Amino acid sequence: MTRGMFLLAAVMLGMLAAPVAAREYPGTAMVExxxxxxxxxxxxxxxxxxxxxxxxxxxxxxxxxxxxxxYRDPNHDGWTYTPGKRTVDICGxxxxxxxxxxxxxxxxxxxxxxxxxxxxxxxxxxxSQPDPSTGVQLVRDFRLAAKGSRLTVRxxxxxxxxxxxxxxxxxxxxxxxxxxxxxxxxxxxRFPKGYLLYGPGPVMNYSPAEEPAIRRRDGFLExxxxxxxxxxxxxxxxGWMAYAMPNDLLFVKRFPVYPNRVYxxxxxxTVSLYYVPQFTELEPIGxxxxxxxxxSASYTEEWELIPFSFPSEGEEIGLKRVExxxxxx
Length: 329
What we know:
This protein has about 325 residues and is mainly β. The protein has helices at about 5-15, 105-110, 320-325, and strands at about 30-35, 35-45, 45-50, 60-65, 65-70, 95-100, 115-120, 125, 135-145, 150-160, 170-175, 180-185, 195-200, 205, 215, 220-225, 230-235, 240-245, 250-255, 270-275, 280-285, 295-305. Helices cover about 10% and strands about 40% of the residues. The strands form 3 sheets. A 10-stranded antiparallel beta sheet has the order 7-8-9-10-22-19-18-12-16-15. A 7-stranded antiparallel beta sheet has the order 6-11-21-20-17-13-14, with no helix packed on it. Strands 1-2-3-4-5 form a 5-stranded antiparallel beta sheet, with no helix packed on it. The termini are far apart.
């Protein structure tokens, strides 16, 4: 083993063995959750966030006044990754890097153990192991507001290799099922209907047929039920999406968009949506980053949960109301 390989192995071993730092900061605690010990809890009067470093550096819970926004499969509680053994499709507030179709498999980042530490009042950081397949290390910083439910989520991609890397931010949050997804359409969209659908098979349908589950209304895309094909690509430039849930919460994600930068997903979209009966996956996508050796690139999302009466059967969701809440500062 060369000296460099030894140092890398030592760093990786140290990160796996390092305990979660527990400091006396307001709004933080070490808790057990979903079969895992030593999770980090961020909390204020109304909102609770639970972070789990054991398997992919995830948000395990994001709730307001006891109402949960994230999907969690209890059959996976306590599961951890062992190389060479069967894996599961982990749930919760997941984050990743892309582009989806060209990035190599990276289970160390996606499923491996991370280091976690409390960094301030209602704030924490999770750090991955260095990943040889992508040449990067990921750092995720979380901060919950002192009041309300706003959660800042920043992912940093560090190039730990000797080559320039070109990856992008890819958020993959699994929200509770059965809601209504709303996003402003791009008036200058390259897609005839403002979105495309994946499938069936290896197809990207840029002009899908109309169907009851999907509607374009007053400049918005509205997905109200399980569609014929679950995966969407959307080139919205609005910088927000909203998801109204049956538990009377509106899950808003705000994120930066860059009209003059390159987006490296195959159809260069800024948002993906995956809507199935079990969950709804909310996916902001960042632009392509050019990251030289030793450098890094960051992308920040803001999450918020807002009380919102879910429409009764036959009732329309108020699109302008959703927009006003999503754009509120």
